[in-house]
Write a structure and sequence with these properties.
Layout: H1 27-37, H2 41-54, H3 59-71, H4 75-88, H5 93-105, H6 109-122, H7 127-139, H8 143-156, H9 160-173, H10 176-189, H11 194-206, H12 210-223, H13 230-240, H14 247-259, H15 266-272, H16 276-290, E1 308-314, H17 321-332, E2 338-344, H18 352-360, E3 363-366, H19 372-381, E4 386-389, H20 399-403, E5 409-412, E6 427-430, E7 446-449, E8 480-484, H21 493-505, E9 509-514, H22 518-530, E10 538-541, H23 546-552, E11 558-560, H24 569-576, E12 581-584, H25 593-600, E13 607-608, H26 611-623, H27 625-639, H28 647-666, E14 674-675
Parallel strand pairs: 1-2, 1-4, 2-3, 4-5, 5-6, 6-7, 7-14, 8-9, 8-11, 9-10, 11-12, 12-13
């Protein structure tokens, strides 16, 4: 997912202040301070203002009135008051500390660091001054300097906040062992703080210690069931393992959490939800908590004298499903009319796909080590006119780049099957199957309807070669092979019931699944046995290179799709390999993708309207060899002639969409839904 940054700066001393012992506050001042501490800010403000009318440099009144403004979030109003207080009472480290914090809140980080250094010069054992210097340096990605400050704070006064921040800095450096140890110390010092358990779960996941990560998430939720993203991460972890013991309860709890505006990871929720309306609520809550609009102006750039400047933004320009789908379209873009750039914030895996994409784009900017605001600056410097986000809220996402309004037109496409719920995303590229016209109200974006299907494909991808023998992959030569090459997280108990009934009714059949977590494998076999199916009738396909994976599809007889989240790239792979895909039409975008693909390849008869019809048709195909042969022959013929795998056609349609978006923008028209 994405990405959001969970490594929050923590501090234990934001507003604490003490008056110099040499001053004896008047009764009016005592009353004002008492009112402020009890939350009666208006009375306190009037009292401080009265005191300052009589004594414009009264240090305590200046200090406390400045803190009052900061308490209200009015840091711009607090700054001149605290600046004056710091000048009048320059020997008071508390005053200087609070002034530095206001400067930090105003993003004047150089000044804040300098004033915190003055605090330390006055009071070398002021641990929170080191802690806040570290937090500023960490926010500026000066991680080694941040760690040094956290170490100084810990040497003075070991605190949960200091260890948690130290863990965060190591976490961001990819030094997971050090991060883990720091988070553990933070928990020892503050065992009831859910944030500490949550960040520990994240580093444990990255260390491959999934059991401990789940335990840490369970502890987070036990401490605070509404802790942002903890419950959805716990559900995702369990579903990746096919741990369905609390499936229905978790499903209802996720819906309730979304309805209550508890932050839930949208990508996890979209796997579980059939409600476009709830998906919009989920996305809006996520945006409000992780990447709210920054209110940056949307500048109308001059009409291009020659080519429209388009950039694709992604973490996945590497060996990844999104890259496999998009590579051909990038290569097919008309370079006489469009200048095509990549803004890549994901890892360079040095794969053939990475090399292919680097060559395909005219400009390939690796911004993986840039701060979000620096990426925004770069995109603006490049004068990008249309920015296409290929990731949405998937793993590694950085939506704050989009929240900064990096480009005048911003588009959600391909990687995230649903709304992003953000006012700063102008359009989503879709088709009339994945987003029926009557569902537009559930999308924050305006909808662009591409004519055939929304999904890009790569016609240059070689067709499967060197197909292995069935015995080489653990399949019997005479078995009927139901194939469901989807992530375990997409499999639900209701769907698994259908699959097991199909095995029971189809003599000599097996279900071929992707191998993943060994606990998931064990759980799925146990679930099969519980439904009366022998464990050995579930066959697991190990992870292999993409070309080998594509080739082995030809050993299967029928691809069974999932619901409420369909196969997307997986369905495209199966159809390209010549394997018919059977789907059930869902109610939300993610559950309608396979139907879109099947219509675009001329096989609408494989789209069913209910799980009963899905089961019925699967059984008919399994029992009718002539029907199977006819479906495979039809798919083989249509693959070369129908729109699904016509990459050039898709590139032209996307370009028409770009031109219409730009025409509307340049004419001063608001974004509006349209069809290409």
């Amino acid at each position: 997912m994405g990405s959001r940054n969970n490594h929050m700066s923590q501090q234990s001393r934001n507003t604490g202040a003490s008056a110099p012992s040499s001053l004896h506050p008047s009764a009016a001042l005592d009353k004002a301070i008492s009112a402020q501490r009890s939350g009666n800010l208006s009375d306190a403000e009037r009292a401080y203002t009265t005191i300052l009318k009589g004594s414009r440099t009264h240090p305590i009144a200046l200090h406390m009135l400045g803190l009052l403004h900061a308490q209200r979030g009015n840091f711009a109003g607090a700054e001149p008051l605290l600046k004056k207080a710091a000048r009048v009472d320059s020997g008071n480290p508390d005053v200087l500390f609070n002034y530095a914090n206001v400067l930090r809140a105003l993003d004047k980080t150089d000044d804040a660091l300098a004033w915190l250094a003055k605090v330390i010069a006055l009071s070398p054992n002021f641990a929170d001054a080191h802690l806040n210097r570290g937090a500023i340096l960490m926010a500026r990605h000066e991680l080694h300097g941040a760690i040094a400050e956290f170490d100084r704070a810990i040497a003075i006064e070991p605190s949960s906040a200091a260890f948690a921040n130290r863990g965060s800095a190591f976490h961001q450096l990819g030094q997971f062992d050090e991060a883990h140890d720091s988070y553990r110390r933070a928990i020892e010092l503050a065992p009831s703080n859910p944030q500490n358990h949550f960040v520990l779960s994240e580093v444990l996941t990255q260390m491959g210690r999934e059991d401990e990560a789940i335990t840490a998430l369970e502890r987070t939720v036990a401490l605070n069931k509404t802790f942002p993203f903890a419950f959805s991460k716990l559900v995702a972890s369990r579903r990746m393992r096919a741990d369905w013991r609390s499936f229905e309860v978790e499903q209802a709890a996720m819906d309730d959490a979304v309805d209550s505006h508890v932050p839930i990871d949208p990508f996890t929720f979209f796997h579980a939800s059939s409600s476009p309306a709830r998906q919009l609520t989920c996305a809006k809550t996520y945006v409000a908590n992780v990447a709210p609009e920054r209110g940056a102006a949307i500048l109308r750039t001059p009409s291009p004298t020659s080519r429209l400047r388009v950039a694709y933004l992604s973490a996945d320009f590497r060996r990844h499903a999104t890259a496999h789908l998009m590579a051909g379209v990038i290569e097919e873009h008309d370079r006489e009319r469009f200048e095509i750039s990549a803004i890549s914030y994901g890892p360079d895996d040095r794969s053939e796909m990475r090399d292919r994409l680097t060559a395909a784009f005219e400009r390939f900017e690796d911004v993986s080590h840039f701060a979000d605001e620096d990426v925004v600056k770069l995109i603006r410097q490049l004068d990008i006119e249309v920015l296409v986000d290929l990731g949405g809220f998937t793993a590694g996402a950085r939506p704050k780049i989009l929240a900064g309004r990096a480009a005048p037109i911003q588009v959600n496409y391909l990687g995230f099957p649903g709304t992003m719920g953000a006012s700063y995303i102008d359009y989503v590229m879709a088709d009339r199957i994945v987003i029926p016209e009557g569902e537009q109200q559930h999308y924050a974006e305006k909808v662009i309807y591409l004519p055939d299907t929304y999904q890009a494909t790569d016609a240059r991808r070689p067709l499967p070669q060197n197909v292995p023998a069935r015995t080489e992959v653990g399949l019997a030569d005479d078995a009927f092979v139901y194939c469901a090459f989807n992530r375990t997280a997409k499999i639900t108990p209701v769907l698994f019931d259908v699959w097991m009934r199909l095995l029971a009714k189809t003599a000599g059949s097996v279900l071929w699944l992707l191998d993943g977590d060994p606990i998931a494998t064990e759980n799925l076999r146990r679930e099969a046995v519980a439904r009366g199916i022998a464990a050995e009738r579930i066959v697991f396909a190990p992870n292999v290179p993409a070309d080998e994976h594509l080739a082995r599809h030809q050993l299967a007889d029928l691809f069974l799709d999932t619901l409420p989240y369909n196969a997307h790239t997986g369905a495209s792979d199966a159809l390209w390999a010549g394997l018919p895909v059977l789907t059930c039409l869902g109610t939300a975008f993610a559950g309608r993708v396979a139907a879109s693909l099947l219509n675009a390849v001329g096989l609408p008869e494989l789209v069913t309207q209910s799980l009963d019809k899905y089961e019925e048709l699967a059984l008919r195909i399994a029992r009718d060899s002539e029907l199977r042969t006819a479906l495979k022959s039809k798919l083989a013929a249509h693959r070369a002639t129908w729109p699904l795998f016509d990459t050039t056609r898709m590139a032209r349609h996307i370009e028409k969409a770009f031109n219409e978006m730009w025409r509307r923008h340049y004419a001063g028209e608001a974004p509006a839904s349209f069809a290409v």
